[in-house]
Each structure stands twice: as C-alpha cells, then as structure tokens.
Design goal:
The complex is a heterodimer of chains A (169) and B (464). By secondary structure, chain A is an alpha+beta fold. Chain A is built from seven helices and four strands. Classes of the chains: A alpha+beta (169), B alpha/beta (464). The complex binds flavin mononucleotide, iron/sulfur cluster and FE2/S2 (inorganic) cluster.
C-alpha cells in the first residue's frame, strides 16, 4: 500500500496497523488521529518530520497534519520528560487540593508548567479535568495511568519510585 | 431505588456474565420489531439525552431519513470533558455491553451502517476496556455481519480523542472523526441531514444509549414512570468537591439534592455548611445554599430557577470556599478550550478571565462586576456552538448570586492608569500589582521595560 514512500519511520507490522486504522473509516484522512497516536507511542513525541511522514502515508498535505497535531493538547510537539506528570487543577480537584499538589510537585522538582528537569526524567503539566473529580486530587502519568486520591507523602513516594526506575534503565 | 445501568452484579462487564443475566436479549427482541416500533418505544419512554442538553432521544432518532440509499452513522459521545463529570467512565468500566447493546438497537432503529464510539484520549484505560468489550461482542456475533441470523449488519469502532474539550460538542466531534481540527460547524444543516463525512448522523451520549436495552425489554411506559415524569429514569450523578463520600451514584430523577448530599454522599466534609453547589458540570448556573435546600434533581426543577441538570456532575462547595477563585478557574478552563472560531467566545473568555484575575489580585474596579455580566451577555447566543454559553453562564449567574461576596474583594478607590491599556496583551503580569500612586512614574517605566522584554520573548507570549 505504501510502496511509493522511500524513507519509512514505521516497520512492516506498524504499517499493517496503519492500514487497519485506514480501513475503519470511509475516508483516509480520518486515520490521522490514530496514526499520530502511533507516532507518539513510538517516539514519545511528534516531530515535524514525523508529521510529514504521516502526511505521506495518508496522502494529506503536511500542513493539514500540523493543524491537527497542534489542535489537540495530548500530542506533544516537543519532547517531554521520561515521566510526564499531568496534574489536574480544575474546579473539583482544586476544592480538594489539586492546585496545591501542582505547586508542591513544581517546587519539589524545580520546574514550571510544561518544563522538563535537567536530567530529563520529569516534566509537569497543569491539565484540565481528567474525569476523575470524585477521586481528587489526582495526576496522570504519560497520558496513561491515573493516580487518584493522592496525599503529599504518596506523591513523594511516587516520585522516588519513578526516579529509581529511571536510573535502572 | 431502580437501577438500570449500575446493576449490582459481580463481573457484569464480562460478556459471559452479561449474557447469563439476560444480556443481548433486548437486541434480539428489537430485531423482531419494525424500526418504527423501536423508535416509538423510545419515544414512549420519554428518555432524554444524558449528554447535557436533555433532548428527547426518540424524537432525535425520528429525524433520521428513512431508506438506506445513503450510509447513515451513529456517533456515541464519550468525550466526557465537562469539569465535574465522570460518569461515562463508570459505564465503560462496569457495564460496557449494555452500552454496546443500546448502540446496536439504535443503529437498527435508524438504519446506521456503523457506530463510532468517541472516547477522550485521557481515558486510555477505558478506551482499552471498550476495545476488549467490542472485540468480545464481535466474536460472539452480536456485532458484524448478519447479526443473530438476521439481515442486519453493523460495525462498531472505538475512536480515541487527543485532549480537546470541544470534541464533546457534536459537530466538532464529527470534524474530529473526519481527521480535521475539531471546529464546531454552523447549524443548520443539522447532523441528521448532513453529518459525519456528509451523511445523515445521530449523536448520542454513552449513558443515553446504555438506557435503551432496558427500555426495549420492559417497555417505554415502564421507564416513563421512574422518577420525575417530565424527565424520567435514573441519572448517574457524579458528586465531587466537599462531601464525605464523593463518587458516581445511580439515582432516580427528582431526588432532593439534600438527600444526594446527606444520605448518599455522607454529608458535607467536616460538618460544614454548604455555600454553593454546581448541579451539572461546571457550565451550569450554580445554586445558593437556600436554593439547595428545596431543589429536586431533574431538569425541569432546575430550569425553574434558571439552571439545568447538564451532565449531573454535582460539585459541592462548603462555607469556606472562595467563590471568586472557583469562578476564575472555571473561566480559565473555557478560555483554554475555546476553539477560537468566534470572536465573542475567543476574546470574551479572555477578557472575563483577565477581569476576574484583577479582582482576585485586589485591583478590581467598581464597575467590574457589571462589566463581567455585560461581556458574558454579549457572548451568550452570539456564537457558533454552545461553548460560548457554557463560559458565559457561570460568570453571569455566579456574580448575580454571590455579588456581595465578590464585591468585597474590590477596593473602594482604585486608580486606573491609561498605560495599562498598552499591556493588555500580556497575561499574568507580575509588576502589575506594585502600582501605587506615590512612585507611579518609576513603576510605569520599569513596567514598560518588562513588557517590552516579554514581548520579545516568544516563550512567554505563547505560553498561554
Ligand atoms: C462545548 C460542548 C461540549 C460537550 N461535551 C459533551 C460531552 O463530553 N459528552 C456528551 O455526551 N455531550 C457533550 N455535549 C453535548 C453534545 O453536543 C450532544 O448534545 C450530546 O452528545 C447529544 O447526546 P444526547 O442527546 O444523548 O444527550 C457537549 C456540548 C457542548 C456545546
Ligand atoms: S463558541 Fe467558542 S468553542 Fe464554539 S465554535 Fe465559537 S469559538 Fe469555538
Ligand atoms: S476536576 Fe480534576 S479530574 Fe475533574
């Protein structure tokens, strides 16, 4: 299907996955979100070059892919830390200390919103409601696991654990 | 109390358990009925959409054109991003097959070729749960070609979002599915005429669809008698904030709010009094303590005092809550999420946030509260989609209901400097609060210097 592309970022298996995503929708363009997710899963973020590649795969102008990638906040347009901590400070969390949690982690790591620590291990982001309002305060790590009903000692423990894991590999 | 969705059956999310307890029997029953009969039954039930607007579901289905000359689609809205809402997540986790069964019945009734389940990207874990459930149902032949030996065929796909609240708005959701930026569309044409990929489309919330199997099983009339007649059935109330037992509870409509807070959720934390309750997600006009005492939780009762049930995400705030900080945070959310197409929404949200912020910093002006209401009223009704309204309502109604408290933060005399106009583009400006009359010129000079620095520094300007 993708014979005319010379320089591939995806291997054969991943290209099959791309084909599957295309097959779910009546138009090829619709696969752009799932394919951008694949890029982010593989490389950790979405570079301009990878956007151009997605454009080639789906026969879309690169500008279109850029437009989509920049519209959605979960696509990272810059590299993030190995552990990207997404802390909700929206209203229900704020009532239960979500904003304090954000400040605590930010002070502890010495980084501000959307910054990465110098060792590249952590980055933090203040995010909007994650649908976890009944178990506030909470944070999400790397767009995935939720950690809910957090206390500050638990956060300390979590950060220690991540740091230890990071130094292992 | 009737339970329709969160039934107390262990492992109900597994397909075998679901089938053992009568699952997919309603689908079988529906396939034996004509499509009009199915739609009539849903109309009779008086089921109203659980996505926020409370639109009658049967009526919505009947807008879809008859005949199958063109493909038709169903979009299942699991974007769930309105702050304070966390109920659809409960369905993905505890009862995905009932939602799938409802989706299949809906597709049959409207003649849809496929259904797309749009789930917010942050719900990564719940996306995977739904993918498993859909795959299981395919394997058992409930989804796919010639379902249960009939000539009805349909596909269900799970689509994962990537973090944009606006994708919950139905036309924006369709653009997102098409692989575009999720800008809401101008209506008309309505989705039933021109929907996703240009074909007739219906959009329903996850909870709405999960109600359908029991309606087909027990009849529309049965459903219409549960709870409050004008807005019948149960709702998945997501209660958060200052209560002892926050969580998602399935309760009949019309239940007194104080029962939800005191009997179901164990009362306000630390035995405090209520100051304010938001009844249905952050965009809904708030209730004062007095209003809470007599309020019943259904759309008609809430409408009577100018609010609405929304997503039934109840946010409880105790007597020590800083209402201004809450309002500022809510406004910041809508400012962040505005897609930017309409000037009133894009600019208005920014202005409301800046004015609220200056009041919070103790630099508010006497006219600010009226200014806020005026900005809100100029957004309301003047935009492509309802995000504009969602941003305007909390500002307008919170100020109306809690004016005295907010006004206390405004100093009696406030100097206004013309130079401030020049810095309006710079957000969160630190030097701002040091302005005093005695060394005005000095401060203004250093202020302008700093502003120039910031304007030169791109990272500051675009950091939002
Ligand atoms: C800004 C905005 C955000 C919305 N977000 C959601 C959402 O997350 N989930 C949802 O079901 N409906 C949401 N809606 C409502 C949908 O546009 C639509 O009315 C609903 O999904 C229809 O389903 P229902 O009739 O079953 O309620 C939103 C509306 C607006 C204006
Ligand atoms: S009201 Fe706001 S979110 Fe909706 S289309 Fe207009 S700018 Fe976009
Ligand atoms: S407000 Fe933080 S998860 Fe909803």
């Amino acid at each position: 299907m993708f014979e005319n592309i010379s320089n591939h970022l995806f291997n054969q298996e991943e290209l099959k996955q791309v084909e599957y995503h295309i097959s779910k929708y009546p138009k090829k363009m619709s696969a752009v979100m799932p394919v951008l997710w694949m890029i982010q899963e593989k490389f950790g973020w979405i570079s301009i070059d990878s956007m151009k590649y997605v454009g080639e795969l789906l026969e879309l102008p690169y500008e279109h892919v850029l437009g989509v990638a920049t519209f959605y906040t979960m696509y990272f347009k810059k590299p993030v830390g190995k552990y990207h901590l997404q802390i909700c400070t929206n209203v229900s969390c704020m009532l239960c200390g979500g904003d304090k949690l954000f400040k605590y982690v930010s002070d502890k790591l010495g980084i501000k919103n959307k910054e990465v620590t110098s060792d590249g291990i952590f980055s933090i982001e203040e995010v909007e409601c994650l649908g976890s309002c009944g178990t506030a305060p909470m944070l999400q790590v790397n767009n995935k696991e939720y950690y809910e009903n957090l206390t500050l000692p638990q956060v300390d423990e979590l950060l220690d654990r991540f740091r230890a894991e990071a130094s292992k590999n | 109390m009737t339970k329709i969705i969160l039934k107390d059956i262990p492992d109900y999310h597994k397909i075998d358990v679901y089938v053992q307890n009568g699952g997919y029997q309603s689908l079988k029953k529906a396939l034996g009925m004509t499509t009009d009969q199915v739609i009539d039954e849903v109309k009779k039930s008086n089921l109203r959409g659980r996505g926020g607007a409370c639109f009658p579901t049967g009526l919505k289905w009947s807008f879809m054109p008859k005949g199958n000359d063109k493909p038709k689609y169903l979009c299942c809205n699991g974007d769930e991003s309105e702050p304070g809402s966390f109920k659809d997540r409960e369905i993905f986790e505890k009862n995905p097959h009932q939602f799938i069964e409802g989706t299949l019945i809906a597709c049959y009734a409207m003649g849809c070729k496929a259904a797309y389940v749009y789930i917010r990207g942050e719900y990564w874990k719940w996306v995977e749960m739904m993918e498993v459930a859909v795959a299981d149902a395919y394997k058992k032949g409930y989804i796919g070609k010639n379902i249960l030996g009939t000539d009805f065929s349909v596909d269900i796909y799970v689509h994962k979002g990537a973090g944009a609240y606006i994708c919950g708005e139905e036309s924006s959701l369709m653009n997102s599915l098409e692989g575009k930026r999720a800008y809401p569309r101008v209506k008309p044409p309505f989705p039933a005429a021109v929907g996703v990929w240009g074909y007739p489309t219906t959009i329903n919330n996850i909870e709405t669809l999960a109600n359908v199997p029991d309606i087909i099983k027990n009849g529309g009339e049965w459903f219409s008698k549960i709870g409050e007649p004008k807005h019948p059935g149960t709702l998945l109330f997501g209660v958060s904030g200052h209560v002892n037992k926050p969580g998602v509870y399935e309760l009949e409509t019309g239940i007194p709010l104080m029962d939800v807070i005191n009997k179901v959720c164990g009362g306000v934390k630390d035995g405090k009094q209520i100051k304010m309750v938001i009844p249905g997600g952050s965009s809904m006009p708030p209730l004062t303590r007095e209003e809470c005492l007599t309020m019943k939780m259904d759309n008609e009762s809430l409408k009577a005092i100018g609010s609405a049930i929304g997503t039934a995400g109840v946010i409880v705030m105790d007597e020590d809550t800083d209402i201004l900080k809450v309002l500022k945070r809510i406004t910041k959310f809508y400012y962040h999420e505005s897609c930017g197409q309409c000037t009133p929404c894009r600019e208005g949200c920014g202005w409301m946030l800046r004015v609220l912020d200056r009041i919070d910093r103790g630099e508010g002006r006497q006219e600010d509260l009226d200014l806020l209401i005026s900005v809100a009223e100029n957004i309301e009704g003047n935009t492509i989609c309802a995000l504009g309204d969602a941003a305007a309502w909390p500002v307008k109604w919170t100020i109306r209901k809690f004016r005295d408290e907010i006004a206390k933060k405004i100093p009696a005399h406030k100097i206004t400097l013309p130079v401030l106009n020049k810095v309006h583009g710079v957000r969160d400006y630190e030097g701002y609060s040091t302005l005093k009359r005695d060394n005005e010129n000095e401060v203004v000079e250093s202020l302008m210097g700093k502003v120039q620095e910031e304007l030169n520094d791109e990272s500051v300007r675009y950091s939002g």
